[in-house]
Amino acid sequence: MLSVVLCLIFFLAAGCGGGQATPEDSLNEGEACLACHADATAVFSASAHGRNGLSCAACHAGVEEHLRDRQHRPDTDWRGKNCASCHEKQYSEWQASPHSQIPLEQFPNDPRIGECMKCHQARGFAAVVAGGGNFKETWGPPPRSEPEAVTCAACHSPHGKTEERLLRLPKAELCATCHGSKWQNLVLSGSGGNQYAGVDWFSFGEHPHNSGNRCVTCHMARTAGAVSSGGHTFRMRAGSEEKQNTAACQSCHGETASYDIFGRQKEVAALLDELRLLLEQHNNGRLPGFQPGACNQCHRGGMQPFEHDPELILGKAYENYLLVERDKSLGIHNPPYVLQLLRSTITNVREEYRR
């Protein structure tokens, strides 16, 4: 009981001065937490946040109640808005990003939803990464009713490891943790497609776009005039009329203003059209739909079968079509792989149906 009283005295004394917090204020305020949370307080004090005057109470609501009654556990404010007082520009960019637009209220009330929460909610992602286990085999905690989903605290640890930008993982690894099995990362790594004989498919994983910081290199680059892309929007182009975010391209390709370097995007678009028409031709003029459920609209799998496809020739070809079409880069993530995959797929369908 005495330790709780002393902690409360320290905490209240630290908060009586008013005005803007200083590193010294933060240190004194942190003493209230130090008695029970020495390790966490020490790490936080050494972080950029601790050195610049933030305290535990900046993100943890109900600290005073917790000091009076240990059964009352402070809650953590995971909202990106909590960071905006110091990082207004980054928060505004994040608001325009897909990360801010995940409709948590539409997720089903199902115990299995923990599998989704490790990527669709900052609280879940942080918990699974901190656990140190195999990410793919670990479920996140049950969903919480929060107004913002994948916020700043998903990628950045407020407690402040000493790594660059307080990142929870290295840059190249951070995006791939959740996006590893999505269309874009599979194309980038030259994998995920149904392969056909006669091609050295293993050679397509090594290329300039799949090196260094990978996703961050292009998606966080900033191009003058591309006002709603790059940075924490992670967008390469906000709309069809906006300037393309080609800053990262220019280091290798010179002063280009278009992603369609060497006409690769036009070539990929033409091959996609050719494959789509070929698949429709063998399925009564249409492509199959998808199984019910919102997850099937964004994640791989869930497509309905073709009408007459016992050997899955069309089904496998359609999977390759969707891999490239839903990658949405028209091959830019890995031009040689995408071109070879589409050409091989078209050739295989034509040969199989010529028999």
| Main β-sheet description | 2 strands, antiparallel
- SS content category: mainly alpha
The radius of gyration over CA amounts to 25 Å
Number of helices: 17
| Total domain count | 3
Any low-confidence stretches, pLDDT <50, length ≥5?
1-28
Q: How far apart, in Å, are the first and last alpha carbons?
A: 85 Å
Q: How large a portion of the residues is in β-strands, by DSSP E?
A: under 5%
The H/E string reads HHHHEHEHHHHHHHHHHHH
Structure overview:
- This protein has 355 residues and is mostly helical.
- Strands 1-2 form a two-stranded antiparallel ribbon.
- It starts with a helix and ends with a helix.
- It is 43% helix and 1% strand.
- The chain folds into 3 domains: 2-76, no CATH class; 88-169, no CATH class; 187-352, Butyryl-CoA Dehydrogenase, subunit A, domain 3, CATH 1.20.140.
- It is globular.
Q: What does the secondary structure layout of this molecule look like, with pairings?
A:
Elements: H1 2-14, H2 23-34, H3 38-46, H4 48-51, E1 60-61, H5 63-68, E2 75-76, H6 88-95, H7 114-120, H8 122-131, H9 152-155, H10 171-179, H11 183-188, H12 215-219, H13 250-253, H14 264-281, H15 295-298, H16 313-327, H17 335-352
Antiparallel strand pairs: 1-2
Helix pairs in contact: 1-2, 2-3, 7-8, 14-16, 14-17, 16-17
In short:
The chain is an all-alpha fold and 355 residues long. 43% of the residues lie in helices and 1% in strands.
